Amino acid sequence: MNADGPDPNLPIAVFDSGVGGLTVLHECLVSLPEEDYVYLGDDARFPYGAKSAAELGECTRRNTAFLLDRGAKLIVIACNSAAGAGLEPEAEIAGAITDSGRVGVLATPATVAGGAYLRALGRQHRELTVTQVAAPDLAAIIQRGFPFSEAVVETVRSYCAPLRRARVDTVILGCTHYPLVRPMLQRFLGREVRLVTAGHALAATAQRILETGGLQSPDEDEGEYRFVCTGDPVAFRELGTRFLQMPLGEVELVDLAD
User: Fold this and answer.
1) Backbone torsion region of residue 58, taken as left when φ is above 0, otherwise alpha when ψ lies between -120 and 50, otherwise beta
2) Predicted confidence band at 192 (pLDDT cuts at 50, 70, 90)?
3) Catalytic: 229?
4) Longest Cα pair distance anywhere in the chain, in angstroms?
5) Residue 59 a catalytic site member
6) pLDDT computed for residue 14 by the predictor
7) Is the distance from CB of 177 to CB of 18 less than 8 angstroms?
8) Which residues contact 83 (CB under 8 A, 6 or more apart)?
């Protein structure tokens, strides 16, 4: 037990409004395989991307309180809408790798309206031209799962069209759901367009925090992971297994009353 902070034996907690945060969990499992994890899918309140700042703040407060009460040494907010201003790593990556200086942001309405990516990209040490596209339906489309109809394909194509017209060479996928359809997005944007996602940056940040705080798991064996959700646990397990490509096991249903 660390007398000055959390117990290093406690799990890392990850939460999102649905299955999108599994893209972040996957990066954490790869980067920190010895750690234990608990994932909260707040799918009863999906989508976060359509909520006001006050509503997002309340969801974050409620989820954080629940996970800390269950026992967690670190909480990863695997939702760009709820993370608010914590989007600097993705902006830094995009600013560093773009050749033309034309950067696109594909995100939920809440993230675009909040302007966090625009501000973060404005702080980079070069002049950038930023094109933002709000995709109000994309996270919901992904959350519903496969198969995708031709109507869905056309919807995704329509979101990519303004980015193609702007001739961006780098696009930030500003929602953790979006990497789950990365092949489709890459096809419509063009194979030469670089896609920047949150998962790798968040996993690297988590690793740095654990090392700085001396909170790494003392166990060198592969850690365990478990899942809880606020909506339909059967649907969450089926869709989550498909996207994570690992067995989720039993998903616990929890009631996070408003």
Assistant:
1) alpha
2) very high
3) no
4) 57
5) no
6) 96
7) yes
8) 77
